[in-house]
């Protein structure tokens, strides 16, 4: 009984250790000892033991790694902290089912102590579990290990095969180190050395062509979430964004964050028309978040509008339902729509948050135009879905744009993890990232995800940067995740084929 408790605590600790590799901590090498701890727990485990230990590891990762979600539940949703803890534990337990299944399958079908179980089977099974977690029931692909390496030596794999190529490289590296320990053969270190070499060569390659610098002003209004949807706060909120923007009229593009104008577009048409004209006078484009209620469809949409000098000849002007807009596609469960709403909304205020009844936009939409430049847009939560962002980036896309309102999560680690994910999209697609937020973290990055400008959290201000647009296509942008899917299938099939061919030193313990 004591040994079982000790093993469970070790699993929880190893999972929790991995959280320190993610933002805001950024101790990216800790992924490897975290995984090696899991390998030690799985080495001679039965399928039942492996499942329980994998579950413990995943709970150790998800519960502290996603603890920031409780802020929206307790501070804005009216849920007592103990109840929020239970709900978050339930979410973590659900997410933990996927790595648990991977660990069970690993012990059930790859029990021979052969190099292929670690170097082929386990990495493949873990990736399959990650992909399932990122897609089933709308998906939640948070805390993928690859994100920890945005500033690490393996980051160059992202433009080739996406963030999960980095996850695979980390798993292969951990497996190689484990095989060195088991077999006392240093030859296994050749694999991680080769992976780092490929990543470094990729970072030396220029995937895109660059244009002339563009002056961008990202406005961070720092509007308190409690005032966000207060009708009496509308005028002060809009005035604040105008005042912050007034001193930056020389910028080519001014960006306001998600729902910066906290009102329905239909009600703000005269204001938006005047704003459009004022921006044109100053030869400036303005991008802003707003809410639209489509009268014909009777649906709400979370929208980003492009106004001012959108096309270079200045012929386009704002009008209601104009084409130069982006409607959010991937909605946040509970926050933007409530599954089984009729059942859940009466239970607690958390299930009846303001503006929690949106509809989805089209999966593929035209890039926003701003002063003749094309911006592929993602609103808040959408940026965590790599394939969904990728399908809206074309060869002639100049920038990635993401607008957000992370005020829901206060002074937690959530906004920092969110920014880390957004930076990875920039690296995958080799596009400068413009990230405008209400309370932070407002940043601009280069094509490799390197931050070139950042505003502090919970301060109003304007981030002024000059960024060169980029056009072209990375291998990941061209092919998406399909090559990695194929590689994962090959690894799994090879592991199955090699399963009975154990080395003499690899007798089952």
Automatic annotation (TrEMBL):
The entry's keywords: Acyltransferase, Cell membrane, Lipoprotein, Membrane, Transferase, Transmembrane, Transmembrane helix
Signal peptide feature range: none
Pfam families: CN_hydrolase (PF00795), LNT_N (PF20154)
TM stretches of this protein: 26-42, 54-71, 83-107, 119-145, 157-179, 186-207, 479-498
Domain CN hydrolase intervals: 219-469
Documented EC number(s): 2.3.1.269
Protein name: Apolipoprotein N-acyltransferase
Species, as recorded: Aeromonas simiae
Origin organism lineage: Bacteria, Pseudomonadati, Pseudomonadota, Gammaproteobacteria, Aeromonadales
């Amino acid at each position: 009984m004591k040994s079982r408790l000790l093993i469970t605590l070790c699993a929880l600790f190893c999972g929790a250790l991995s959280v320190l590799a993610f933002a805001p901590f950024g101790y990216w090498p800790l992924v490897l000892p975290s995984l090696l701890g899991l390998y030690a727990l799985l080495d001679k485990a039965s399928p039942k033991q492996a499942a329980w230990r994998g579950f413990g590891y995943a709970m150790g990762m998800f519960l502290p790694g996603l603890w920031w979600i409780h802020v929206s539940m307790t501070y804005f949703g009216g849920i007592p902290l103990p109840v929020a803890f239970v709900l978050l534990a339930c979410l973590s337990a659900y997410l933990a089912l996927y790595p648990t299944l991977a660990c069970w399958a690993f012990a059930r079908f790859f029990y021979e102590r052969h190099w292929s179980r670690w170097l082929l089977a386990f990495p493949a099974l873990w990736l399959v579990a990650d992909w399932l977690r990122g897609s089933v029931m709308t998906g939640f692909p948070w805390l993928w290990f690859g994100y920890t390496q945005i500033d690490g030596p393996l980051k160059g794999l992202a433009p080739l095969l996406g963030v999960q190529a980095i996850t695979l490289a980390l798993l292969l590296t951990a497996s190689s180190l484990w095989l060195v320990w088991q077999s006392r053969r240093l030859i296994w270190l050749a694999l991680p050395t080769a992976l780092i070499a490929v990543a470094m060569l990729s970072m030396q390659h220029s995937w895109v062509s660059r244009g002339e610098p563009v002056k961008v002003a990202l406005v961070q209004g720092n509007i308190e979430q409690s005032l966000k949807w207060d009708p009496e706060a509308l005028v002060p909120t809009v005035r604040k964004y105008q005042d912050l923007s007034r001193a930056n009229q020389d910028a080519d593009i001014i960006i306001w964050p998600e729902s910066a104008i906290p009102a329905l577009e239909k009600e703000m048409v005269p204001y938006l028309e005047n704003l459009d004209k004022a921006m044109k006078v100053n030869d400036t484009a303005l991008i802003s978040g707003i809410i639209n209620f489509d009268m014909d469809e009777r649906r709400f949409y979370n929208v980003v509008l492009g106004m001012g000098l959108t096309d270079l000849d200045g012929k386009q002007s704002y009008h209601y339902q104009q084409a130069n807009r982006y409607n959010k596609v991937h909605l946040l469960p509970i926050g933007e729509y409530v599954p089984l709403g009729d059942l859940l909304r009466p239970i607690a205020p958390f299930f009846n948050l303001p503006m929690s009844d949106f509809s989805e936009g089209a999966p593929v939409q035209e890039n926003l135009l701003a002063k003749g430049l094309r911006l592929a847009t993602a609103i808040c939560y959408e940026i965590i879905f790599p394939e969904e962002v990728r399908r809206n980036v074309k060869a002639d896309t100049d920038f990635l744009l993401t607008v957000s309102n992370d005020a829901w999560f206060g002074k937690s680690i959530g906004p920092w993890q969110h920014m880390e994910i957004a930076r990875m999209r920039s690296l995958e697609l080799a596009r400068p990232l413009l990230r405008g937020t209400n309370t932070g973290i407002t940043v601009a990055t280069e094509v490799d995800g390197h931050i070139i400008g950042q505003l502090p959290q919970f301060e109003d201000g304007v981030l002024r940067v000059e960024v060169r647009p980029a056009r072209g296509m990375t291998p990941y942008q061209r092919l998406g995740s399909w090559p990695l899917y194929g590689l994962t299938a090959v690894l799994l099939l090879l592991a199955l084929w090699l399963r009975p061919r154990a080395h003499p030193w690899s007798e089952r313990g």
